[in-house]
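Posting this for the archive.
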Amino acid sequence: MQPVAGRQIELYATLRILVAFLGERDQFNWWDCSFLNAIGRKYVAIICPRSFLAAACNAATEAARSAHDSRIGKGRVFHLFRLPQTMEQKIHRKLFHNDVGHAQAWLTSKDTALQQLEQMAAKPDSTSVGPVLVGKSAALTLPATPGLLAGLYLDAFRTERRRMPYFITAY
């Protein structure tokens, strides 16, 4: 797999924050947590004052990863919350260096987060439900992939049909 550009890592980090927030209990209830809402962020800020957004995102990511893994599985697959190790490391660095601190403004309401997701989204195929095979893992490095994922999640949230896009590794 070819390296992923910095702008693309920022898109994946942004997408992860938005989908993690929208999937939480208070929004669409895909996973049972509330780390990214205002109260959750305040609680996490008590423990991690300098990196509370990254810590809240990591906690919500764990809940989302578990939900995705239970539907998709863990072997030889990747999804928004379980990416290749090099991508995970870059997203982690971006979050902890607060390179996506502006994301807090998108977490004020479900509608605001959906609007931001809509700005990122490409038009998805809206016929599928559940785990959706997007392609091989090499597609994760393509410039259009974050927009495609944003479109799939946006349509899933709007139609209230759980859709979890994933990629397979090439043998």
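Residues 6-168 form one domain. The longest strand covers residues 130-136.
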